[in-house]
Protein: Chromosomal replication initiator protein DnaA
Amino acid sequence: RWSRVKGRLRTSVGEDVYTSWFARMDLEGVQDESVHLSVPTRFLKSWIQAHYADRVLTCWQAEMPEVHRIDLTVRTAMRSAAPAKEQTAPADQRRIEQTNGRPAPELRATATAPVSASHDALGGSPLDPRLTFASFVIGRSNTLAHAAARQVAEGRRGDPVMFNPLYIHAGVGLGKTHLLQAVTWAGNSGSERKVLYLTAEKFMYGFVAALKTQTALAFKEALRGIDVLVIDDLQFLQGKSTQAEFCHTLNALIDAGRQVVIAADRPPSDLESLDDRVRSRLAGGLVVEMGSLGEELRLGILKSRVAAARAHHASFDVPEAVLDYLARTITHNGRDLEGAINRLLAHSKLNAQPVTLEMAEREVRDLIRPQEPKRIKIEDIQRVVARQYNVSRSDLLSSRRTANVVRPRQVAMYLAKTLTLRSLPEIGRRFGGRDHTTVLHAVRKIEALVARDIALSEEVESLKRQLQE
Ligand code: ADP
Ligand code: MG
Structure:
């Protein structure tokens, strides 16, 4: 069960966060409602408590609903000095459990161990040698992002910087990390520039560790000597002091004409925990969204994956019909496409069988999921509501208080609260800088009205349908 909880945690926070903070967390015991966990240092303990306490609890509750408390303690020196079993033996096993449909390690196509690029003072995050421009497939949803990334990668030291920062956002598995690592590989091989790829977690970890060892100054200077700073998964940047540091670094680099490239799962305006100054700086460069993968692009990605696998397993072949089938049915994201090819590879290798449509149908059944509900944007809500009530979007954001705009505005805020994950203050901000209590009032008002006014209730339902289509 402990390994399942760890698996959940890993999925929930991502590989990089997991290795940074949780890899050395051990289970000491479970008693009634509380789970006792330990970590080797006080620092880890307070960091996990401050940032991940809820997450850890949720992961436990998913396995054991009766758990209501997590006790985290610091292991004594003696125990942590002898980590042997937990640390080494199960690690591989865990990897296999966690590879989510990827073949066993010896079959991983070109999956050489991740290598780090050469940044000594500042360890960058590991780079995957497969994630290059050569293997990146261009389609309608990523043309612009790709072109911008290429442009950035091909720049030379001293060139004028065209878009700074370049900010790419997209949902999970749509190619952000691929594109960022491609920029890093290309930048590091072609020119004399120093390109550093860091996940936001790694940035935090580096900064906090530097503070602890009183080398923060060296850390900052090393960062400012970078020509191209590439930051992945910015949505994970947490904590006031790290954000302030990130802000300084960003400003220093941009002002010095260095390039910054950022990826996140949402646009700058939706990075709620960042302060306004960082947000506006982020939005001041080029912001590009990568949309969902179209069928043609999915087919392209599948083909590129097969080609990569064939470099090492020459007999591996996937018939056109199977590729078409996969491209049509696995609509979710690039990770599942990769997983599907890896499974077919594993299966055909292990059983020495050619890939057939029937085999594909069986092997990838669980990767075919119903379309995720669409992520609804506040702007869309405002647009649809404005149209419905025949007012303008700026009326909704204005301070006008006439009845014909007050009600639509309240409906729009109510929909924003119920259809998105945005917080009340964030919604207030997006409605012309209103206070969160105003939003709360609107939400309650509409909730009350919907309960007794059938006409309004139907109107609201119809708006929801329009937005979800
Ligand atoms: P994200 O960082 O946005 O979650 P990744 O960059 O990790 O997504 O992509 C997930 C998988 O899909 C990776 O295997 C990646 O190589 C593949 N992928 C996504 N988009 C493309 C693309 N345009 N061309 C080739 N592979 C892609
Ligand atoms: Mg990623």
